[in-house]
Amino acid sequence: MTDATHIPMAACPACAAAPSAERLAALAPAREARLVLSLPGAHCAACMVTVETALQTVPGVRSARVNLTMRRVSVDARADVAADDLIPVLAGVGYEAHELDPGLLSATETDRQGRELLMRLGVAGFSMMNIMLLSVAVWSGAEDATRDLFHWISAAIALPTVVFAGQPFFKSAWASLRVFRLGMDVPISLALILASSISLYETWAGGHHAYFDAAVMLSFFLLAGRYLDHRTRAIARSAAQELAALEVPRATLLVDGSEVVRAISEIAVGDLVRVRPGGRMPVDGVVTDGTSEVDRSLLTGESLPVYAGPGSVVAAGEVNLTGPLTLRVTAAGRDSSLHRIADLVAIAESAKTRYTSLAERAASWYSPLVHILSFSAFGYWMYATGGDLRFAINISAAVLIITCPCALGLAVPAVVTAASGRLFRKGLLIKHGTALERLAEVDTVVFDKTGTLTLGAPGPTNLADHPEAVVQVAVALAAGSSHPLATALVKAWTGDVASVTDLHEVPGYGIEGQWQGARVRLGRAAWCGADEVDVTATYLALPDGTTHAFTFADTLRPGAKAAVAGLMAQGLAVKLISGDAAGPVAALADRLGIADWVAGALPAEKAAAVALLTSRGKRVLMVGDGLNDTAALAGAHVSISPASALDAARVASDIVLLGQDMSALPDALRISRQAARRMVENFGISAAYNVVAVPLALMGLATPLAAALAMSLSSITVSLNALRLR
Length: 726
What we know:
Blueprint (H helix, E strand, L loop, with lengths): L20 H7 L4 E7 L6 H12 L4 E7 L4 E7 L4 H10 L5 E3 L11 H28 L4 H22 L1 H12 L6 H20 L7 H22 L5 H8 L3 E6 L2 E6 L8 E4 L8 E6 L2 E4 L1 H4 L5 E3 L4 E2 L4 E2 L4 E7 L5 H16 L5 H27 L4 H14 L3 H20 L2 E3 L4 H5 L4 E4 L1 H5 E7 L7 H11 L5 H9 L8 E6 L3 E6 L2 E6 L1 H4 L8 E5 L5 E10 L3 H10 L3 E5 L4 H11 L3 E3 L4 H13 L4 E4 L6 H6 L2 E5 L4 H6 L2 E3 L7 H34 L5 H20 L3
Parallel strand pairs: 15-22, 15-24, 22-23, 24-25, 25-26
Antiparallel strand pairs: 1-3, 1-4, 2-3, 5-6, 5-7, 7-13, 8-11, 8-13, 9-10, 9-12, 14-26, 16-21, 17-18, 18-19, 19-20, 20-21
């Protein structure tokens, strides 16, 4: 049986686009099929080798490539090779796997924008160093032809550099101007163009001063800020897209008693669909034939499987565990419950994007003010000097450069980068650029239960209460089942086991066998003739008519108790919302000291609860790991998920908990508040710098080069202040 409490997805999405039909026909007599499987358990190079080696032994598989970052494997195989052929092979080498739809994954996951920014930053830095060397010669007293030669060499280096390195600013500025808006990149672009133009004119006219070093220095510092900003804002994929990819792309349709594999788009309401053990439900439907147990932890958070038989309602995304089921389809494709959750996530994600960072709010008034100052300086000095265009443009350019928002652009990214490094060492990965700012504003924390505060893995609690001979029989039966409780029982017992033969699993009920010539059973209370206890348990029926209940409890995640206590000590309201049954939720809440808890919450109800708290003015931190938490994670003010979470949940969250220990959560809030203070301090430094420097530029006491040096000093000061967080 497969425990689907956590199904992070992983693969090489760059390989998701299948080769063209023409190329395939030329390369092979049989058309290849591209399959993508998620590998929740893959985490190291040894996993990569094991998975790839195992898959390449399957007849028809041409190649297999594991992407550890995405926890996926991409497989090239003949068209007659299906995911159902590969999943058991991976299970045999110890890896859980689930099929993804490659058509719904990004064709490429490469960070093209980040690479381009880094390349332009490198070019600007290299050019800046060379131009500064030439400028030193000019400052040292080079005259006439020598000075002009150095200026022309500087121009030959600087002008192509500004054109190339300034592309991100020029494109953004033009996009702003086309819609009659003054963005941050408009004054930046003007400063770069003016500094380069004035320098070229001065060089052509044989002037004493050229400011190519200022233009390239501007490009370098601005690109540094832009790259830091990009790195802190980069979110790999849309969570809604990940949820869509989790939908089963094909289903086994029953047509006149025969099984035919069809795409989900071809499945209609009323069709009959066969789902084998270990497979995910491709559609919403009602069971018409067969009995089994269904793991619906992805959708509801229920920690244990539930019985499914004729008349039972199942939903897309649930996992069929022990027996084949035939379903009559009630909803498929875009109408399925899984797709409705994806729609909820998409809506929540779009709402979160309306949050504006401190830098964006500052830019809304900063950019117009810069232009007003620059144009005012130009107009005044044109009037004061009787129309000296050259002098007026120099002062206007100096004002633009000295007010250039380098420090403003670095104020937030530099702090986020420093704080992110500190949190990373504590086991927390910041994924979103505004996550720290939002985390600092949190006043309410909402936890999921299964897989978040607990590890989602049951453990026996009363083995010592049973005679050893009884435990030996129970473990021998449990060894023949992959049910989560049976697996936990086997893992917990280290002693000898009884000799039980003729093991036979009855889907939906349990497992039975022969011991000392008589039948013994391990499974549900009613099937074993036992009185049901009020906690999670499995029951053993012995030949003498006695029954024994083996009870289980979910394992508490390390640091969970310390995290809850630390958050409460900071004055935060803590709430537990789970899809699990009331009994386990109440027990956990009492164990952790959480007074406010809700059980049996569906995904939409979790998202609605977070939305209700938000509408009451609360700033909610949501901590969850499952598909049923994804919409709530996306809709919360800020969100955290464990690295073991379903990939869609990790994508929807702003921060990822890299290890199992949760004790760092209170530290994360404390550091986020420190980071928010550093951001405000950086804006103060930037403002103080402008209060001193701008009047000097307006009075004509600062050349464009002096302005660039002053701008660089403010940027360095802001960066050093951010580094205090380390």
